[in-house]
UniProtKB/TrEMBL annotation:
<keyword id="KW-0125">Carotenoid biosynthesis</keyword>
<dbReference type="GO" id="GO:0016705">
    <property type="term" value="F:oxidoreductase activity, acting on paired donors, with incorporation or reduction of molecular oxygen"/>
</dbReference>
<comment type="similarity">
    <text>Belongs to the lycopene cyclase family.</text>
</comment>
<dbReference type="Pfam" id="PF05834">
    <property type="entry name" value="Lycopene_cycl"/>
</dbReference>
<keyword id="KW-0520">NAD</keyword>
<dbReference type="GO" id="GO:0016117">
    <property type="term" value="P:carotenoid biosynthetic process"/>
</dbReference>
<dbReference type="InterPro" id="IPR036188">
    <property type="entry name" value="FAD/NAD-bd_sf"/>
</dbReference>
<protein>
    <submittedName>
        <fullName>Carotenoid cyclase</fullName>
    </submittedName>
</protein>
<dbReference type="InterPro" id="IPR010108">
    <property type="entry name" value="Lycopene_cyclase_b/e"/>
</dbReference>
<dbReference type="GO" id="GO:0016860">
    <property type="term" value="F:intramolecular oxidoreductase activity"/>
</dbReference>
Length: 415
């Protein structure tokens, strides 16, 4: 039987998550023919996506299901109020808004391999499907079908198990969002990796509660985090009385900025997960217009050629030199977090969130420059105790690409 071939398009986007969908919408809005290939038809994104409201593009802020101004961190006692509004995205509204921005073809299928043919690319799918395009964008997530992301020392994962449930007694203060709670009310929480509670009051007696390991190698398993979450809730006297849904996430946090290649990657497939917070969606929504501009201009300059120039332009927009330098500084911070033992993590974050809000907010923002990041890291180093300073110093000495001298240089200090 002959392959089921489809007409050629300008750009084929692999993956059906919010990043790939946002880029598809922006490319199509600029007049390019776009095919998005995903294993499922268009449907609301299944994961729970939270973001600092100010990091979302203005149009995406309208897709917030809920916004909290009472945002808290517990690294001991008392609570640290963060004073920055935090949003839970309405995934159905986000998809609906993106699909309404332009017209493009959504194809249900699974891309299996890609190869150059003539002046374009041929992508083979399941059941003999074949698609043709001038440029391929791999937005398939952490599995990255085509692109390749490297993780120094091996992947270090963030893992989390959470539930949406109803409670007779509130597990967190009603009306609040808890970004990080490192308190350990149960013996189970005082053993193994340090984990924290991430929680949202969804209204009435409904809450989303999630036990999270920020970054670890090896990482806690789903079963372990489930046990820890239930132990926490039981110890508080707030066991769930009815679980509506469960969520499990596991993804690498320590991606290096990837080398550009003939296939453009996007979102998590391009290593754009924030190495300290694990956030990615707000950055992917914000990056899409600039990447789409660069790709569109390059494709229009060379109508009859392969999309190599477009891929190079997209990579340059996604990972400019200043962003690559910032990633190296962030990876230094990742090395420090991996070197901290469970007893020092709460102390580290207490020092971090005691910084002026503009400084810790900038450190967590995906677009902050290397110099600002380095200055914040040095301030944390100066203000924290010896138990935290030693792992930070070790990380600076051990990092394969960033030395303490380079860190100081990035911060604008004499070396």
């Amino acid at each position: 039987m002959a392959p089921l071939s489809s007409p050629s398009c300008d750009v084929l986007v692999i993956g059906g998550g919010p990043g790939g969908t946002a880029l598809s919408a922006e490319l199509a809005a600029r007049g390019l023919s776009v095919r998005q290939v995903a294993p499922h038809p268009p449907r609301p994104f299944p994961a729970t996506y939270g973001a600092w409201l100010g990091e979302l593009p203005a149009w995406a802020q309208g897709c917030a299901e809920q916004v909290w101004t009472d945002v808290r961190v517990y690294t001991g006692s008392p609570v640290t109020p963060l004073g920055q509004p935090y949003a839970l995205l309405d995934n159905a509204a986000l998809l609906r808004t993106l699909r309404g921005r332009a017209d493009w073809t959504w194809t249900q299928g699974r891309a299996m391999h890609a190869e150059r043919r003539g002046t374009g690319w041929t992508v083979g799918g399941e059941s003999g499907a074949v698609w043709h395009a001038r440029l391929i964008v791999d937005a398939s997530g952490h599995g990255a079908l085509v692109s390749s992301v490297r993780f120094p020392g091996g992947p270090a994962l963030q893992t989390a198990y959470g539930v949406v449930a109803r409670f007779r007694r509130p597990p967190v203060t009603p009306g609040s969002m808890v970004w990080m709670d490192y308190r350990t009310p149960a013996p189970e929480l005082r053993r193994g990796e340090a984990t924290f509670l991430y929680a949202m009051h969804l209204g009435a007696d409904r809450y989303f509660v999630e036990e999270t390991s920020l970054i670890a190698r090896p990482a806690p398993t789903r079963d372990e985090l489930r046990r820890r979450l239930l132990a926490r809730l039981d110890a508080q006297g707030t066991p769930p009385r009815g679980i509506e849904s469960e969520e499990w996430v596991a993804f690498p946090m320590n991606a290096q900025a990837p080398a550009p290649g003939p296939v453009l990657a996007y979102g998590a497939a391009a290593g754009r997960v924030h190495p300290v917070s694990g956030f990615q969606v707000a950055g992917a929504l914000a990056d899409a217009p600039g990447v789409a501009d660069a790709v569109t201009a390059a494709l229009r300059r060379s109508e009859d050629s392969l999309g190599d120039d477009a891929a190079a332009a997209g990579w340059a927009a996604l990972w400019p030199p200043e962003r690559r330098a910032a990633r190296e500084v962030h990876l230094l911070g990742v090395g420090a977090l991996l070197g901290l033992d469970r007893s020092t993590l709460p102390h580290f974050f207490r020092t971090f969130f005691d910084l002026p809000p503009r400084e810790w907010t900038a450190f967590l923002h995906p677009g902050t420059d290397a110099g600002s990041l380095a200055r914040t890291m040095l301030r944390v180093f100066a203000q924290t105790g010896g138990r935290v300073r030693l792992p930070l110093a070790r990380a600076a000495l051990a990092h394969p690409a960033v030395s303490s001298r380079a860190l100081a240089a990035a911060a604008g200090l004499k070396v």
